[in-house]
What we know:
The protein is α/β, with parallel strands linked by helices. It has two domains: 2-125, Type I PLP-dependent aspartate aminotransferase-like (Major domain) (Aspartate Aminotransferase, domain 2, 3-Layer(aba) Sandwich), CATH 3.40.640.10; 144-222, Aspartate Aminotransferase, domain 1, CATH 3.90.1150.10. It contains eight helices and six strands; from the N terminus they run βαβαββααααβαβα. It has helices at residues 18-31, 53-61, 92-109, 116-125, 128-155, 167-170, 182-192, 212-222; strands at residues 2-5, 35-39, 65-70, 83-88, 175-177, 201-203. A four-stranded mixed β-sheet has the order 1-2-3-4. It has a two-stranded antiparallel sheet with strand order 5-6. Helix 1 (18-31) links the parallel strand 1 (2-5) and strand 2. The longest helix has 28 residues, at 128-155.
Amino acid sequence: MVVLHACCHNPTGFDLSHAQWQEVLEIVRERKLLPLIDFAYQGFGEGLDEDAYGVRLLAENLDEAIITSSCSKNFGIYCERTGCLIMVAKDSEQMDNIRSQAAIVARENYSNPPAHGGAIVSEILHDPELTALWREELTEMRDRINTLRRDFVEALKPYGLDEKYACVAEQRGMFSYTGLTPEQVDRLRDEFGIYMVRSGRANVAGFSQENLPYLAKAIAAVND
């Protein structure tokens, strides 16, 4: 089995191009791998349909695939743990076997999932007006994050660090590896009150237009 992120790779923020997804497909075929595709951030990269490219490519061209789709982020209902498990099989007989095993696993783990989150998603997706509003709000969230990425790099330009951190503008999703060392992260925390995990992974959604100048100045200070 190989685990793949469909889009907005966490933690790096780097996504595969269409050509790279084609290469992944060939490698999966050649090595006879079973892909488990984590689809947690649909709509946060380039768009709802655009972010599904790799998922659709593998599902349409492989006999078997497992897809885990989450509504936690794109519906804003993280605490409801809402999503779905999608299985792809080569024929109906195999699917019957998979369905039987999946039912056993579900029964042993949680028996009956909470219904509230699923009801929210169903209500939205079965109402054209609510669906249109959801798509609009999701676009606003995606555009905000992508704009913050570009503006973050721009804010570092006066310090001569824009090229060093240019990758952040190229990445997608909520998270990015900044390249900051654990020691630099410690300084950001102790001297400037800026927090991130010591690996240098930053939550871009936590940026704002108001705090970007302060953030850029602090990063410049720890890069001295």
